[in-house]
Specification:
Helices cover 79% and strands 0% of the residues. By secondary structure, the protein is mainly α. It has four helices and no strands. The longest helix has 21 residues. The relative contact order is 0.06.
Length: 68
């Protein structure tokens, strides 16, 4: 997300700077695996979106249809 370790600690004060550095180190040591898991998660969500209609989108659509 482009944040520095210090910015992460400011945004999440329950974490120590050492914990953030440990997490970043783990990420960079396992970047391929983690990025693939992220892609799989996004594909899964995209598939769910095809099968399930968002209630919010239904309401938005109804409101848009009323305004026309």
């Amino acid at each position: 997300m482009g944040m520095t370790a210090d910015e992460i600690v400011l945004a999440h004060p329950h974490l120590s700077l050492a914990q953030v550095h440990d997490a970043l180190s783990y990420y960079y040591e396992n970047i391929g695996t983690i990025n693939e898991e992220i892609r799989e998660g996004r594909r899964f969500v995209d598939e769910l979106k095809k099968d399930y209609v968002s209630i919010l989108e239904l309401k938005r659509g109804s409101a848009a249809n009323l305004q026309r």
